[in-house]
Amino acid sequence: MINKLLRKNKAMFLAYDHGIEHGPKDFNIENVDPRRILDIALEGKYTGVILQHGIAEKYYTGAYRDIPLIIKLNGKTSIPHIDPISRQVCSVERAVKLGADAVGYTIYDGSPTEPKMFREFSKIVETAHDYGLPVIAWMYPRGKFVKDEKDNEILAYSARIGLELGADIVKIKYNDDPEGLKWVVKCAGKTRVVISGGNKIDIPEFLHKIEEIIKSGASGIAVGRNIWQHEKPFTLTKAIQKIVFEGKTAQEALDFLNQQK
Ligand code: FBP
Question: pLDDT tens-digit profile of 168-184?
């Protein structure tokens, strides 16, 4: 069931749930339109696009339905200053009706609200697996008891929680320590690890990170802003594909990019 989300055993997901998580401050006049993201995902042959259900319902139509769809089942805004919690806003059944090939859910492990999210997530795993849908867990340690969200130990712990709770893929952040990531991948066991992007950074640095991520045994990337905030997302996508699917180095991908100018 996970094969539809992979090419050459690797994943390259385009995330676009920022409208709820961060608000329109992440967007410009082009990428505020979900069709722009779906165009990038379609032409760039991403192995999945990550959307909230409302966007999927209105925009995941026509040719876009060739892109594997990952529906994010929970979400929150960045407005309230409460203990981190993200509750379910879409059922697995609705995701199935919308054409989902997988569902996703964020768990803020370490937050005082963790038990609620563990319970909700575990029920989602049960239902989704009954439908044959893989489940992706955004494992984001967060809250007043988490001193460093990118500490190696907490990242490895987060990956392991994903395995324990039935996730097929965990999406975690990268702390620029390839050795640490190798351990994270080991701790995740049969659950695959993909890495999220973060704020937009320089291209050479971004490509270098991707090379490290792939070489550390992760199954791929699930990024948003670093792609669709870039002025040439289509060419950048081709460069990234070289690292993710062809095993090329960041330097080779960069050389390719420079030749396109
Ligand atoms: P980016 O590559 O843009 O960071 O997207 C990955 C992602 O996990 C999104 O799916 C989500 O909207 C966002 O990051 C949430 O990040 P945070 O909670 O750290 O602000």
Answer: 999 999 999 999 999 99
Segments making up each domain of the chain, as ranges = 3-231
CB 37 within 8 A of CB 16: yes
Structure tokens at 8: 């050459």
Bridge-based pairing of strands 169-172 and 192-196 is parallel
The residues annotated with a catalytic role in the active site are: 140, 171
What is the pTM (predicted TM-score) of this model? 0.97
Q: In testing the pocket of ligand 1, which one of 13, 18, 50 has its CB within 8 Å of the most ligand atoms?
A: 18
3-231 under CATH 3.20.20.70, yes or no: yes
pLDDT digits (tens, 9 = 90+) for 128-159: 999 999 999 999 999 999 999 999 999 999 99
Around ligand 1, the residues with Cβ closer than 6 Å are 15, 17-18, 21, 50, 138, 140, 196-198, 223-226
Select from 12, 13, 14, 21 the residue to mutate for testing ligand 1; criterion: most ligand atoms less than 8 Å from CB.
21
